[in-house]
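User: Some background: our group keeps a shared notebook of sequences we're curious about, and every so often someone picks one and asks for a predicted structure to add to the entry. Today it's my turn. The entry only has the sequence so far, pasted here. Could you supply the structure so I can complete it?
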Amino acid sequence: MKKLISVCLLSMILIGCSDTSSTEQAPDKTTENKVEDTAKDTEKAVEKAKDTEKLTDEQKAKIVEYFKSDKEPSIVDALFPYDTLKLGVHNDGSNRDGLADYACQILVNDFNVKELVVVKIIDIDKLVKTDKWETIGEKNCNYN
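Assistant: Of course. Here's the predicted structure to add to the notebook entry:
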């Protein structure tokens, strides 16, 4: 099989290739319908995203307050700029994706968040020492 492919490729190189092939066919109606349906689905998704209620600064402040509270002792600090919730923790060397996933569950269950939020778990010690934001856990919370 490899020899056949190699011979075919070599023939194409020696003879030359044209843009159209004798076996090439025009797309059938089914393909056109699939493309149209995909375009319509994309338009609907864009409209739905526009209609999604954005979190207010007050709601973000309540979320930050919750994560800074004694209810979440492993979280040292929290910040919620734009659509990213950043939670600072002491790095014990473990992957913190599970903590980010847990934070997503808190957002939807306790705060009724319905928009896309990215949760990033940040190594707070490295941030303090070097002023660099090292992500040690992350989760995209998509509620649509």
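Suggested note for the entry: The two ends are 47 Å apart (CA to CA). The CA atoms of residues 11 and 41 lie 43 Å apart.
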